[in-house]
Design goal:
Number of domains: 1
Shape: globular
Helix content: 10-25%
Structural class: alpha+beta
Strand content: 15-25%
Distance between the termini: 43 Å
Number of strands: 32
Strand order of the largest sheet: 2-27-26-28
Number of helices: 6
Radius of gyration: 22 Å
Mean pLDDT: 73
């Protein structure tokens, strides 16, 4: 685990990404696709002091487990899958402000506040607030927030995504089922990582871009191309470089409101409890619908039957960007996977607390002998210094938050099937012919009892270690030490320390959050 953490603490800044179709290769092409190469960012300074923890008001339950904000990290799904329909109408977004401290940025970087949103808790049969967070956006990307759409039988979440700069969203017909089944040829060398294939839309038709091997970098995680479902069609999200989790920002814990505090005039929620992402690998899960990561205690057999998969096992059987990067980074450690697996089973055997919320210290208490994934910001193990948010920066955050909410409402209005010019079956290309499309409204449902209904195969792995290769994917080549770089058409990016410094100024605009996190406070203006 130490090797994994040391590797994922290095960071650099990437080039602007290539256009959406840059990776398409015609069937007659013989050249292998290539990815853009990241560039170097100067190393940062040591972490700075953090003020004392503020009092958490009554009415807020900080969760020590729950969904990860989709702007921080999102599982990869090779097929388009709408979210389930839930029976309750979500409340309006609450007033939310960032903590008084934010991570400092390196040269050329922005650290932006990505607002929270309501997420459905099927076990509680109610909504959680998935807290906003500080984020260093992926290079060349801007955050496009999601929204709740009213559909037959309830409400359905339409996910946010990292869009390409100011390029407007394009709504495409639903692509065919993916034919991706892992690499068909061995890796050219030990410094290569596999990039999955994807359907690409050209001339009113879908064409398959096969997967390929690409140089891998310890400082960067490749997010593969995918399609994001909306009621008005599918949005193609071109693949892009992102930071390792520990360098993405500060992730805050979700919270449950047992009182409607947002109805109090002048009240605003201010997260303070952060998620220690450096220690969550044995407590990270893929949710039932493959549309969210979850952290914390989802070890009980009930959750496996409901469709939760432990991250270490999911990544071994299916493609996951975080697992793919971590496995490659630990290719010289033959005990890496066994250690990761043993950490999970040790915690499942009883070393992780069963309670899901915190209360006691300022209203917060860790239950049982939990490993403490959620803790106050001033107790978090940090790799980046924190700077105080100035009044001008706070005003900019407030303006950006309103912009995000306006954008979310705009998506809600325009992503209805009837809003597409020419009707719901019209081609997304102006002047193009009509093409068949699926609205996706026949989504999975959650009944009023809050029980999860899913056709997903449950996690059934035994606790005894098996060394077989992952299904459909080639095992990494194991060496006693990391192999030397063998060269390619790309320059090798820097393996520098986390690229943060204490003198950066805040820049507003689009972006999104994720990294180590916190949740739960409130205040009045």
């Amino acid at each position: 685990m130490l090797d994994l953490l040391r590797t994922m603490r290095r960071s650099a800044l990437a080039f602007a990404l290539v256009p959406a179709m840059a990776f398409w290769q015609s069937p007659s092409a013989t050249a292998q696709p290539t990815l853009p190469v990241p560039q170097r960012i100067p190393a940062g300074q040591a972490p700075g002091p953090v003020p004392d923890m503020p009092q958490t008001p009554d009415g807020i339950e900080v969760q020590q487990r729950g969904p990860v904000h989709e702007g921080f990290a999102l599982p990869y799904d090779k097929n388009v899958a709408p979210a389930p329909v839930v029976p309750k109408k979500p409340p309006a977004p609450i007033p939310e402000e960032p903590p008084e401290q934010k991570p400092a940025a390196g040269n050329g970087q922005n650290v932006e506040w990505i607002p929270g949103y309501w997420g459905w808790d099927a076990e509680r049969n109610d909504f959680l607030w998935i807290s906003g967070f500080w984020r260093v956006p992926p290079p060349g990307r801007k955050w496009v927030p999601g929204h709740w759409a009213q559909v037959n039988g309830g409400w359905q979440w339409v996910a946010g995504l990292w869009g390409e700069g100011n390029r407007p969203l394009q709504y495409l017909p639903q692509p065919p089922a993916s034919v991706e089944n892992g690499p068909s040829v061995p890796a050219p060398d030990d410094n290569s990582a596999y990039i999955p294939g994807a359907w690409q839309y050209q001339n009113d038709n879908y064409m398959w871009r096969p997967g390929f091997w690409s140089p891998a970098y310890s400082d960067w995680v490749w997010t593969p191309s995918y399609y994001s479902w909306t009621p008005n069609g599918c949005v193609y999200v071109n693949g892009y470089w992102d930071y390792p989790l520990v360098n993405r920002g500060t992730l805050f814990a979700p919270v449950y409101f047992n009182q409607p505090l947002w109805q109090t005039a002048g009240w605003a929620y201010r997260p303070w409890f952060a998620v220690d992402i450096g220690n969550w690998w044995g407590s990270l899960f893929i949710g039932p619908y493959r549309n969210s990561y979850f952290f914390g205690n989802y070890y009980a057999p009930f959750y496996a039957r409901a469709g939760f998969w432990p991250w270490y096992s999911w990544g071994r059987n299916y493609y996951d960007p975080l697992f793919n990067h971590a496995r490659w980074a630990n290719r010289g450690n033959p005990n890496w996977y066994a250690g990761l697996r043993n950490t999970y089973w040790t915690q499942r055997s009883g070393n992780f607390a069963r309670a899901g919320s915190l209360a006691g210290v300022n209203g917060i208490r860790a239950a049982g002998n939990a490993p403490g994934l959620v803790r106050p910001l001033n107790q978090l193990n940090r790799t980046a210094p924190l700077n105080r948010v100035s009044p001008a920066q706070l005003r900019q955050v407030q303006a950006n938050t309103q912009h995000f909410r306006d954008l979310s409402q705009q998506r809600n209005r325009t992503e209805l099937p009837s809003q597409r010019p020419g009707g719901p079956n019209a081609s997304p290309r102006s002047g193009g012919a009509n093409v068949a499309r699926q609205s996706g409204y026949s989504g999975l449902t959650i009944n009023n009892g809050g029980r999860i209904q899913s056709n997903a195969a449950p996690f059934r792995e035994q606790s005894s270690f098996r060394s077989s290769a992952p299904h459909s994917f080639q095992s990494p080549v194991i060496h006693n030490s990391a192999p030397a770089y063998r060269g390619s058409s790309h320059a090798m990016p820097s393996r520098s320390a986390p690229s943060f410094h204490s003198g950066a100024s805040f820049h507003g605009g689009g972006g999104h959050g994720g990294g180590a996190g916190h949740g739960g406070g409130g205040h009045k203006h």
